[in-house]
Write a structure and sequence with these properties.
This protein is α/β, with parallel strands linked by helices. It is 20% helix and 23% strand. The chain contains three helices and ten strands, in the order E-E-E-H-E-E-E-E-E-E-H-E-H. Strands 1, 2, 5, 6, 7 and 10 form a six-stranded mixed beta sheet that branches. A two-stranded parallel sheet has the order 3-4. Helix 1 packs parallel to helix 2. The radius of gyration is 16 Å and the shape is globular.
């Protein structure tokens, strides 16, 4: 019988130099966090379904984030599909058990800390990724493509979560201070370009 485990990776808000614990593994096996997770080649390109009723700047942000990872890998890992409004509505639990890879903005929030900006949920088997969704915490935070000091940069969070979607884990700032995979973010902060380390890590994975 196939056994599917769920992994949730989180990005939190940082109000200062210290960041909170930001990774929560929803698993019975504590050693699973050290697994190497990746999509099989047959799954590419990953069709990421996003809301179609967006301002132009948000549409641009989706394409920018996808292109950063696609360029790093040298092939089309992500295909952004602008399709419908249904992904904006509903409850966050709905996105964990369907057959659509989506970026969702549910009005509720999954039962994790409210300091979490967004999360990527996975199902996988023996290290092979089977399903994933990105869910933004719009209950607590305001996301914008040109954020002020009380808003969160949408593209920064998206490119980070897309890194998780591909199987990357968090990278501490003392290991790579330019990485988009750092686990926390400040209001108004932008971190939109992959570091040399990010590119190396994703190329090693694929």
């Amino acid at each position: 019988m196939k056994y599917i485990m769920i992994l949730i990776l989180l990005l939190t808000i940082s109000c200062g130099e210290e960041s909170k614990e930001t990774e929560k593994i929803i698993l019975s096996d504590p050693d699973t966090s050290s697994l190497v997770l990746a999509w099989p080649e047959s799954e590419f390109p990953l069709r990421l379904i996003v809301p179609s009723s967006l301002e132009a700047s948000f549409s641009t942000a989706y394409n920018n984030a996808a292109n950063k990872w696609n360029d790093a890998l040298g092939f089309t890992a992500f295909e952004i599909v602008f399709e419908g409004n249904n992904i904006i509505f509903g409850t966050s639990s709905q996105y964990l058990n369907d057959d659509i890879f989506s970026v969702a903005f549910p009005p509720d929030w999954i039962d994790v800390e409210t300091s979490v900006l967004a999360l990527t949920s996975f199902s996988f088997f023996n290290g092979t990724l089977l399903h994933a969704d990105i869910i933004f915490n719009i209950l607590t935070f305001t996301f914008d493509t040109s954020p002020n000091n009380s808003e969160i940069d949408f593209e920064t969070v998206l490119i980070h979560e897309m890194g998780h979607f591909l199987g990357l884990k968090h990278v501490a700032s003392d290991i790579d201070s330019l990485s988009v995979m750092q686990p926390s973010l400040r209001f108004g902060q932008r971190r939109r370009n992959l570091s040399a380390g990010d590119i190396q890590r994703i190329q090693e994975l694929y």
